[in-house]
Write a structure and sequence with these properties.
Its main location: nucleus. The chain has 304 residues and is mostly helical. 35% of the residues lie in helices and 9% in strands. Among the domains are: 43 residues, Orthogonal Bundle (Arc Repressor Mutant, subunit A), CATH 1.10.10; 47 residues, Homeodomain-like (Arc Repressor Mutant, subunit A, Orthogonal Bundle), CATH 1.10.10.60. The protein binds a DNA duplex (21 and 21 nucleotides) through α3 and α6.
Length: 304
DNA sequence: AACCTGTACAACCGCTATTCT
DNA sequence: AAGAATAGCGGTTGTACAGGT
């Protein structure tokens, strides 16, 4: 069945797994095709089953990763737009290295992609910026790029974000600042953005998040100094043509099964709409939260 | 042309959380 | 309730490739 001579590249190795050996390393186009075909016709199930039934000598974990990071039809590939960069930087300042949660706000982008982008590009850029700014400039020092910014945020207070389900506006992504201090409980020393996001249905992975937010849907004036980034417009139509085209191309990609529902709802101009989540955060009503929204000047998100 | 170096990114690994039996 | 299986996450490594010498 499997022949080592078929290996497409030298970078392929194998690990023994009982009766047969599992391939490792880069995926060949043939493997991609098998997995893609299988996923499109059967949907996502148990990944070890996927690996077996698709006729791949890969572990389920490897198949899952390949699908999520590379083969998923809704992936937006190509360079990050300035808007996306800004958003990543901003979210990272809040969430730290919680790549999956950051990715949840960037439709078509994967945690791995964002992580790589951060480590290879943004981190370097921030580092450079720190060297070109005086130490007294609080926006430029290196630690601001990650945990320090994060910590300073949650030293202030707690912040949650949510989607306004009642609005079809592309700018319906709104930021919410909550003046309540969770710290009083003493339990969640590590802040609650993720909790809030999860509770409103935004933090539970990629699949449920499509249609949440286009990166260009709102402007984020970065708190951090990042040298070459263009200033960001709030104009939702400013999304790059390429992105728009890709979004449109993805419009018809729908995969359904028990665990996987992918459906991009888009309006006529390629913006995403959000539907059908129960927008409660624990015991809070959104209306109550909204009342406090404007009281947090450190937030860069626009609150309608 | 050959080698070296830096960069981007795909993939793996180890761990934790969750679900299933 | 406990253990096994599975899913998911973040850190790290490995590879391909481009550019410089």
């Amino acid at each position: 069945m499997w022949n080592p001579d078929d290996l497409p590249g030298k970078n392929i190795s194998h690990v023994s797994n009982g009766n047969y050996r599992l391939r490792k390393g880069l995926w060949s186009p043939e493997e991609d095709e098998k997995l893609m075909k299988y996923m499109l016709s059967n949907g996502q199930g148990c990944w070890s089953e996927v690996a077996r039934n698709a006729g791949l000598q890969r572990c389920g974990k490897s198949c899952r990763l390949r699908w999520i990071n590379y083969l998923r039809p809704d992936l937006k590939r190509g360079a990050f737009s300035p808007q996306e960069e800004e958003l990543i930087i901003h979210l990272h300042s809040i969430l730290g290295n919680r790549w999956s949660q950051i990715a949840a706000h960037l439709p078509g982008r994967t945690d791995n992609e964002i992580k790589n982008f951060w480590n290879s590009t943004i981190k370097k850029r921030l580092k450079n910026s720190s060297s070109t700014h005086s130490p007294n400039n609080s926006d430029s020092s290196e630690p601001r790029d990650a945990m320090e910014g994060f910590i300073s945020m949650h030293e202030h207070d707690t912040m949650c974000m949510y989607m306004d389900s009642s609005s079809s506006s592309p700018s319906s992504m709104q930021a919410m600042a909550i003046s309540n201090r969770f710290g009083s409980s003493g339990a969640a020393g590590y802040f609650n953005v993720s909790t809030c996001l999860t509770q409103v249905g935004m933090g539970d992975g990629f699949y449920g998040d499509h249609g949440v937010l286009g990166a260009g849907d709102f402007g984020v004036e970065g708190e951090l100094f990042v040298p070459p980034l263009e200033s960001i417009s709030i104009d939702e139509n400013a999304t790059s043509d390429k992105t728009m085209e890709e979004n449109t191309n993805n419009k018809n990609n729908t995969i359904n099964n028990n665990n996987y529902k992918l459906e991009n709802n888009m309006d006529g101009v390629g913006n995403y709409n959000w539907e059908g989540e129960n927008l409660r955060m624990g015991e809070w009503e959104l209306g109550d939260l909204m009342e406090d929204a404007s009281s947090f000047p450190f937030l860069d998100f626009q609150v309608e």
